């Protein structure tokens, strides 16, 4: 029933499957970062510094709300991957349909609630008076587009859960190019100001989401459902909410820690803020492969847990960690040798102090990229296995570490403490995630019981935690 577009990740070489899924994900994330940068350049060049500041001032609230939407959709797609691995296609379609029903409900409620309260939130965040009107004009339109965010992320999440990471990439590229074109049209031609930039984002995502949906309906026979399969189902909705809501909260909780740290950095002065901003933009590019590796492992783990191929989870974990460590070392080398030149894309050569602080931030965080590998690989593997609440607790560990550095260390150690905030957060998350993975694997092997014994003998699996132990041996 499945067609050529889907990919079964329960058989074949784990490293080949993971790498093949990973590459399109990396290109998609890198392209998204690129068009976000172009979007910023257009606003700054055509509307001025205050308009740029207005848009930038909404970054944390934007990430908190839109990140929640994205996390929920990613969570809704995990049972689809599990049922695909189980080859239970009727149940797969029920999960996909009920994920769509929930996305519609979440989108309506969130759009109404957030749009009604967003000005009060901006006031609460002490948004400067000379940019608050522009910030409100921008973020209000962005939040009006919450349904478009749910549409694109829900559809692309389902497609990825079937093992196809290329199709979402194509529609992401289409959305990005359309966004840039609409930015120029709404800002330069229609003179709509910052609201024009927001409408460009919303319209491009809506068009991409609708096109992706039409393609999915036409291309994927496996998703063609009966009326009974498409009907709302309370049991399935409860399962989806149990996975999706914690994943959404994970994004929002992480945003809270970043907001606390940003407040601390603001107190160090504009030079430190500029250095961290430039370094963070560079860091986002270099961290895209870690994010892509995590999303890959969510699909890989979901399919294999559905197929009860527990031994393949450890094999995939080892392959993903080795890939991540190799890239982490390469990224550290590139940033050590060329970090100053890369920073000049965002900073003027005369700003010696800012360039020095940007380099310090980049190198400090890059030295801890290996703990970041584990954060993404282990956390998303746990999520793919269906234990998303554990991932939320890891997000709480990250938030507490970043907030602790912001509250306790930055006032005394200054900018050096800022540079260690993310590494501390990654290590804190790992200290929770690695034992959690071992306990989950032990439980799953125990539950599988006698039926797992032949698999252990055939595959040579010696213990329930083989995946992570094999990595650390």
Strand content: under 5%
Taking Cα atoms only, what radius of gyration do you get, to the nearest Å? 22 Å
Task: List SSEs in N-to-C order.
Answer: HHHHHHHHHHHHHHHHHHH
**Fraction of residues in H or I helices:** over 70%
Shape estimate: globular
Q: Count helical runs.
A: 19
Overall tally of structural domains: 2
| Distance between the first and last residues' Cα | 42 Å
The residue-averaged pLDDT reads 83
By secondary-structure content and strand pairing, the structural class works out as mainly alpha
Low-confidence stretches: 450-473
Count of individual beta strands: 0
Structure overview:
This protein folds into two domains: 11-266, no CATH class; 268-473, no CATH class. The chain has 19 helices and no strands. It has helices at 14-47, 49-56, 59-86, 89-124, 132-144, 146-161, 166-189, 193-219, 227-230, 234-266, 270-306, 310-343, 352-366, 369-384, 388-413, 415-419, 421-448, 453-459, 466-472. The longest helix is centred in the middle third of the chain and has 37 residues, at 270-306. It is globular and about 65 Å long. The two termini are 42 Å apart.
């Amino acid at each position: 029933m499945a067609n050529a577009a889907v990919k079964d990740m329960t058989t074949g070489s784990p490293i080949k499957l993971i790498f093949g899924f990973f590459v399109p994900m990396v290109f998609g994330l890198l392209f998204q970062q690129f068009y976000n940068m172009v979007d910023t350049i257009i606003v700054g060049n055509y509307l001025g510094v205050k308009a740029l500041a207005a848009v930038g001032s909404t970054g944390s609230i934007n990430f908190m709300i839109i990140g929640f939407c994205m996390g929920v959709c990613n969570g809704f797609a995990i049972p689809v991957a599990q049922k695909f691995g189980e080859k239970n296609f009727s149940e797969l379609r029920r999960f996909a349909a009920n994920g769509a029903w929930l996305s519609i409900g979440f989108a309506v409620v969130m759009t109404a609630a957030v749009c009604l309260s967003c000005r009060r939130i901006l006031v609460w965040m002490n948004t400067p008076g000379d940019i608050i009107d522009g910030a409100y004009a921008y973020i209000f339109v962005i939040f009006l587009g919450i349904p478009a965010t749910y549409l694109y992320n829900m559809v692309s999440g389902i497609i990825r859960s079937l093992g196809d990471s290329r199709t979402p990439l194509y529609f992401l590229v289409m959305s990005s190019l359309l966004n840039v074109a609409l930015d120029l049209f709404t800002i330069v031609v229609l003179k709509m100001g910052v609201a024009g930039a927001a409408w460009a984002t919303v319209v491009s995502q809506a068009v991409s989401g609708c096109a992706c949906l039409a393609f999915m309906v036409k291309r994927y026979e496996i998703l063609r459902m009966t009326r009974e399969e498409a009907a709302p189902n309370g049991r399935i909705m409860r399962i989806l909410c149990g996975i999706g809501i914690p994943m959404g909260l994970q994004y929002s909780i992480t945003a809270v820690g970043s907001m606390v740290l940003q407040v601390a950095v603001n107190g160090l002065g504009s030079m430190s803020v500029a250095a961290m901003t430039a370094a963070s933009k560079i860091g986002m590019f270099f961290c895209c492969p870690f994010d892509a590796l995590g999303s890959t492992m969510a699909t890989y783990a979901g399919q294999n847990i559905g197929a009860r191929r527990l031994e393949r989870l450890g094999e995939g974990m080892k392959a993903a960690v080795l890939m991540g460590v190799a890239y982490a070392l390469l990224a550290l080398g590139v940033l050590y040798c060329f970090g100053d030149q890369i920073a000049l894309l965002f900073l003027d050569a005369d700003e010696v102090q800012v360039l020095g602080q940007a380099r310090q931030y980049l190198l400090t965080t890059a030295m801890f990229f290996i703990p970041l590998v584990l954060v993404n690989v282990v956390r998303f593997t746990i999520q793919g296995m269906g234990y998303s609440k554990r991932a939320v607790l890891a997000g709480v560990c990250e938030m507490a570490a970043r907030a602790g550095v912001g509250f306790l260390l930055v006032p005394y150690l200054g900018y050096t403490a800022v540079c260690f905030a993310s590494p501390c957060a990654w290590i804190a998350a790992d200290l929770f995630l690695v034992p959690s993975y071992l306990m989950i694997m032990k439980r799953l092997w125990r539950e599988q019981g006698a039926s797992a014994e032949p698999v252990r003998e055939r595959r040579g699996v010696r213990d329930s935690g083989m995946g992570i132990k094999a990595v650390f041996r």
